């Protein structure tokens, strides 16, 4: 089993914990050490696994030292959590990239069976591909969210590139990808052909400016996600603290922590990856805080998925020019969903009403006879 491949945490990281207060995270989670071996997985909620696989990266990358992240993460104080966490160490690279993919897929499959969420840290963004393949084993439709400055379909002159993880996913059989949402894309990093492909497939894209202007509008995107991936090239240079390699525009450190918190709150997210990490002291601290906010979000989950609107929900019917839209608001979390009710909109796999996470603004827009774009794209994907 691929768990046997995991390398224990370096002793240097463990020795530094001896000087830390007993209340910090490092002294309150289970650790994979050389002396104690792999911790018992049963009963865990979240595990951390380090990656160093960059061979299919779009860009030249130096390996990120995840042990520096550990130093920063271990010394943080936990919130008021009842979350059981373990650091399982690092997965070494296989003899080729496909070997690494296989190991990640096998680890992901077993953790999903046990209802444990892994956070994969490091490596290139294509490490999301084997996590998508896990859902093929479960024959389950998948929603993916990528926080990224680009769509990752093309490379050089190829629209569908063999080294692009998104190309691999949309070409893989059987194809179970229901929706792909890109958060924070920047137009000048996306080829026109990629934008056309996004529109053709009715995938959702939210530009950087929209994300920064109102971060709360991204919450429904995470609420419907099974897999969340962060490509840290999305950061502004202020956030990465590397002006020589950073970007003049991008997501700031406060916003990206808010996004990871939304990912944690989502009752549906099963896998999270944080990839393409620049090696800077600021990144080490930011990464530790991102993981902290994901766990914080997890501790606040509402347990409303799968959604049952039979009780605890207020139903709203909105009559538009040519149809009626149904919205539901949770009395527990005050979050909103919209329903696809016309059978002609549903494919053979979904012969019942389908709920899509949305915002109150979507409801208000519908009352003005405007169909929300997320609803429209979902309908088109189901035809």
CATH class of the largest domain: Alpha Beta
According to DSSP, the number of beta strands is 13
> How many angstroms does the end-to-end distance come to?
40 Å
**Biggest β-sheet strands, sense, barrel:** 9 strands, parallel
Write the H/E string, N to C: HEEHEHEHEHEHEHHEHHEHEEEEHH
CATH level-two architecture of the largest domain: 3-Layer(aba) Sandwich
Task: Extract low-pLDDT stretches.
Answer: 344-351
CATH-assigned fold name of the largest domain:
Arginase, Chain A
User: How much β-strand is present in the residues?
Assistant: 15-25%
Query: Which percent range fits the helix content?
Result: 25-40%
Strand order of the largest sheet: 1-3-2-4-9-8-5-6-7
What does this molecule look like?
With 383 residues, this protein is an alpha/beta fold. It has 2 domains: 2-299, Arginase, Chain A; 313-382, no CATH class. It is 33% helix and 19% strand. The protein is built from 13 helices and 13 strands. The model is unreliable at 344-351 (pLDDT under 50).
Write the layout of secondary structure elements.
Elements: H1 11-17, E1 30-31, E2 46-51, H2 66-74, E3 85-91, H3 97-113, E4 117-122, H4 128-138, E5 142-147, H5 165-171, E6 177-185, H6 192-200, E7 204-207, H7 208-213, H8 219-223, E8 227-231, H9 237-240, H10 253-265, E9 271-275, H11 281-299, E10 313-319, E11 324-330, E12 336-340, E13 354-358, H12 360-367, H13 373-382
Parallel strand pairs: 1-3, 2-3, 2-4, 4-9, 5-6, 5-8, 6-7, 8-9
Antiparallel strand pairs: 10-11, 11-12, 12-13
Helix pairs in contact: 2-11, 3-4, 4-5, 10-11
């Amino acid at each position: 089993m691929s768990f046997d491949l995991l390398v224990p945490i370096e002793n240097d990281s463990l020795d530094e914990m001896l000087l830390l207060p007993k209340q910090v995270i490092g002294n309150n989670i289970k650790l994979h050490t050389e002396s104690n071996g792999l911790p018992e997985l049963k009963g865990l909620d979240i595990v951390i696994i380090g990656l160093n696989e960059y061979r299919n990266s779009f860009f030249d990358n130096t390996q990120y030292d995840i042990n520096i992240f550990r130093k920063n993460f271990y010394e943080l104080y936990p919130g008021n959590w009842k979350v059981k966490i373990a650091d399982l160490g690092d997965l070494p690279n296989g003899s080729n990239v496909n070997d690494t993919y296989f190991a990640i897929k096998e680890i992901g499959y077993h953790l999903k069976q046990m209802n444990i969420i892994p956070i994969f840290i490091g490596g290139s963004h294509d490490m999301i591909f084997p996590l998508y393949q896990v859902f093929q084993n479960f024959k389950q439709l998948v929603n993916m969210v990528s926080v990224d400055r680009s769509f990752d379909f093309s490379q050089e002159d190829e629209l569908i590139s063999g080294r692009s993880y998104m190309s691999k996913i949309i070409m893989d059989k059987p194809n179970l990808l229901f929706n792909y949402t890109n958060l924070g894309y920047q137009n000048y990093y996306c080829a026109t052909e990629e934008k056309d492909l996004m529109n053709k497939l009715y995938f959702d894209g939210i530009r950087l400016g929209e994300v920064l202007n109102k971060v709360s509008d991204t919450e429904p995107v995470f609420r419907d996600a099974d897999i969340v991936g962060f490509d840290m090239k999305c950061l502004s240079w202020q956030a990465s603290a590397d002006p020589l390699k950073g970007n003049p525009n991008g997501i700031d450190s406060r916003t990206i922590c808010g996004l990871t918190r939304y990912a944690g709150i989502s009752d549906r997210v099963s896998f999270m990856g944080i990839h393409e990490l620049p090696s800077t002291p600021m990144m080490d601290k930011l990464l530790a805080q991102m993981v902290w906010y994901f766990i914080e979000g997890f501790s606040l989950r509402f347990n409303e998925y799968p959604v049952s609107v039979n009780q605890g929900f207020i139903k709203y019917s909105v009559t538009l020019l040519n149809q009626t839209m149904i919205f539901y608001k949770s009395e527990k979390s005050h979050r909103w969903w919209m329903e696809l009710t016309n059978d002609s909109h549903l494919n053979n796999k979904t012969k019942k009403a389908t709920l899509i996470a949305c915002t109150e603004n979507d409801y208000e827009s519908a009352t003005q006879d405007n169909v929300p774009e997320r609803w429209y794209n979902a309908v088109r994907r189901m035809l």
